[in-house]
Amino acid sequence: MAQGLSTLKDDDLILNDCVQAFTSFVCATTFPMCITDTSLEVKIIPPCKSTCTNVIKSCLTNPESASTETQEIIKKYILSSKFFPQDCCNNITTSPPLNFEYPIEKCNSSPQLFNRPKCFKPLIEDRKWIETNKSEVTSKEFCQNGCCLPCPQSYALYPSNQMERGFLVTQILRVISVIGSGIMLFSYIVLPEKRAHPNLLILFASFSIFLYSTNVFFSILKPKRVQCINEIIPSTQGNNPFFCGFQGALLIFASYATIIWIGFIILNFHVHTVWNSNIMDDKYIYLHIVGWGIPTLFTIIALITHSINYQFATLCFIKVETSNSIFFYPLAAIIIPIFFIHIWTFGYIYRIMRKDRSNAEFKTRVLQPITIQWRELLLSVILIISVIFYWLFYFIKLSTIVKIIESKGFSKFLKDWMICIQSGKGQNYCANNVENNFMPSFRSILAAEISVSLIGVYFFIIFYNEILWLELNQWIHEKSSTIRSYD
């Protein structure tokens, strides 16, 4: 424990002297030297009295001139230890086998401890610091005095294995989303009647959702190949171009595309219901320019500005500092008009319903589209809610984590956390204190990740009905019959 604390401030001579003296005393009294004489009797050689007086001097007398922080560390973690000697006048202990008096003659000076960092889990040794004799560190942000916070850094600030298990659940949900959106995409591609307006809008929306969900395959079962370039340094698009750079670019592109194509579905319902128009029926060339062009534009901007890196969860994304300008604000510029168009459409429907429900035009222009397209409307509402919820988490909660981890040097709270870890209290005890005071709750993190991991599942549940199953089954039967006829 004392060696662990000594790594926190190895340039503090008073703290180091106290740590050296205390550790030597504890080791000497707990594991005293033993010799066997010619009669094969084992004799215990107790530690010198100076071993005890050195502790009193180094940890009680000298620290009076030390900094407040050093005094607090010594008082909290060394003076309060049950191993700290009350005085050096009496026996080492009052009970056998160490009820000896401290010898004072022919005593050698206490051996010094090996100057190597003692890093308690989850901290790991800074190999570069050791190899270069303290002249260099692996990371100025995540390493201090020979001990480093391992990548992914946020995992260590929560109880052991909590984040790993939680994000494994979200990865499984993303795989299910891939399967669900993949089935829908396949169905809308192969069924001829699904390749006409307005079903084409659903086809391209399903393709976007499928792309979005397939990001999980970059990190499934091996999230660290996306999260970290080595055991300490997080990934960026520069040091990990495929697993972080390409994956992050695909995630940005698919996110924009999904929202835009869902927006087209809402817009199509609006112009058909409110304006009695099929203007979008023959405008697919423009829809493709917007639907794929805007995602491509913002993806390129993110890559050019080197904004893609790993910061949280299991995927690389836009770093918090530029996420609003490159992602969330432009996305809001798309979502907000879509939302008001949605309100406009249902306001129109409500007014017509109050005016005359028996009107033939109402049944044709309003009730029939709602009956046919209620699935598209439900999906759009769920996606908008999911995106807004995730944005609020990312903007409010996640920025807190990133500001703490990416601040210059260690913040006071991180130092307190390291002192807690290096005192041997364990990750679970220390992480609970940190999480309660500084970090977002694990439940809020998991809720945000689950909300966006289930997009493909939402899509499948809403659209995959008995009619689609019968149509797909008939198509498979026809194809099988055709193949058999050729045989």
TrEMBL record:
Transmembrane segments: 172-190, 202-221, 242-264, 284-305, 326-350, 377-396, 445-464
GO terms under biological process: cell surface receptor signaling pathway
Compartment(s): Membrane
Domain G-protein coupled receptors family 2 profile, chain residue ranges per copy: 166-388
Any Gene Ontology CC annotation: membrane
Keywords tagged on the record: Disulfide bond, Membrane, Receptor, Transmembrane, Transmembrane helix
InterPro entries for this protein: Frizzled/Smoothened_7TM (IPR000539), Frizzled_dom (IPR020067), Frizzled_dom_sf (IPR036790), GPCR_2-like_7TM (IPR017981), GPCR_Fz/Smo-like (IPR050949)
Entries under PROSITE patterns matching the protein: FZ (PS50038), G_PROTEIN_RECEP_F2_4 (PS50261)
Domain FZ: 1-92
Chief place where the protein resides: membrane
Family as reported in the entry's similarity comment: Belongs to the G-protein coupled receptor Fz/Smo family.
Official protein name in the record: G-protein coupled receptors family 2 profile 2 domain-containing protein
Taxonomic source organism: Glomus cerebriforme
